[in-house]
Design a protein that fits this description.
This protein has five helices and seven strands. The chain has 172 residues and is of the alpha+beta class. The protein has a single domain, classed as 3-Layer(aba) Sandwich (Aminopeptidase), CATH 3.40.630. It has a seven-stranded mixed sheet, with helices on both faces. A hairpin with a 2-residue loop joins strand 2 and strand 3. The chain is globular and about 40 Å long.
């Protein structure tokens, strides 16, 4: 019999049935990360655009989405694939990596990152890049701690606010 305090933690590819839980995770994680950074109305739009139907469609289309499951709970997700920035000579990109706030600081982000990076490498995408908003200090610190090198800067407009973003890279 499993003792009560043994909780299974796994990272696996998302399945269609996970769409609702991923949408809820996205909602919580984005509110925690971007409240006061991205203007309120813009943040609501970005969150509402990514409901269960959006995730269900992405999963069915074969987007690479990994989820970290803690017991019965989807604690975080990462989606990733080919590098989208033609100006940067890296093979792969992690587009998003987020954890629900209560699961941050426990090493789960590192596990998701490692799983996504390994999956990319196995399909020949050895070098990798991740973009983070400069004002999202926890993310910037996290990618630095994982050995990411800041290699490019850009900016993105959210309503009438322009925010800086930075690209971190990893080589094999």
């Amino acid at each position: 019999m499993r003792s009560m305090n043994t909780v299974l933690i796994e990272v696996r590819r998302a399945k269609a049935g996970d769409a609702g839980a991923i949408a809820a995770t996205h909602d919580e994680a984005w509110r925690a990360a971007y409240q006061g950074v991205i203007p309120g109305r813009e943040l609501e739009k970005l969150i509402n655009r990514r409901g269960p139907d959006w995730w269900d469609s992405a999963i069915r289309k074969g987007s690479r989405i990994a989820i970290l499951v803690f017991g019965e709970t989807v604690a975080g997700y990462a989606n990733y694939g080919r590098n989208r920035a033609r100006s940067l000579s890296y093979d792969g990109e992690i587009y998003e990596l987020y954890l629900r706030p209560e699961f941050q600081g426990l090493g789960f982000g590192r596990r998701l990152f490692t799983a996504a990076r390994k999956d990319l490498a196995q399909s020949g995408l050895q070098s990798m890049v991740i973009w983070a908003l400069s004002d999202n200090e926890p993310a910037v610190e996290f990618y630095r701690a994982l050995g990411g090198k800041a290699v490019a800067r850009s900016s993105e407009r959210f309503g009438d606010k322009v925010l800086d973003k930075v690209a971190f890279s990893w080589q094999p």
